[in-house]
Amino acid sequence: RPFELRAPERPHRVLVGPRIGISKAAEQPWRFGLAGSAWLSRGFGHEKG
Predict the structure, then answer these.
(1) Domain boundaries, the chain
(2) Which helix (H) or strand (E) covers residue 47, if one does?
(3) Which pLDDT score is estimated for 4?
(4) Using CA of residue 45, residue 19, residue 16, residue 11, what is the dihedral sign?
(5) Alpha-carbon distance 34 to 22, whole Å?
(6) Can you tell me the distance from the alpha carbon of 47 to that of 13, in angstroms, rounded to the nearest whole number?
(7) Position 43 confidence tier, pLDDT thresholds 50, 70, 90
């Protein structure tokens, strides 16, 4: 079966936050996740989108 990408049925809320567990450039918002995801180990402070 071929792999295919589809647009979501509804927009997702993407959360953004600082990197964790590092000291260099830790303030950069390079950590992203879906709101309500069970796969996030730590919460986010800001929402985007």
Answers:
(1) 1-49
(2) strand 46-48
(3) 94
(4) negative
(5) 22
(6) 7
(7) low
Q: Which token pair is 9?
A: 């049925």
Residue ranges of E strands in 1-49: 14-17, 31-34, 46-48
> Does 24 score more than 90 pLDDT?
no
**Using one digit for the tens of pLDDT, what is the confidence trace for 3-14?**
999 998 988 888
In whole angstroms, what is the distance from residue 8 CA to residue 10 CA? 5
3-class DSSP state of 30? coil
Q: For residue 39, give every residue at least 6 positions away whose Cβ sits within 8 Å of its Cβ, in sequence order, or none.
A: 33
pTM more than 0.70: no
Which amino acid, one-letter code, is at 23? S
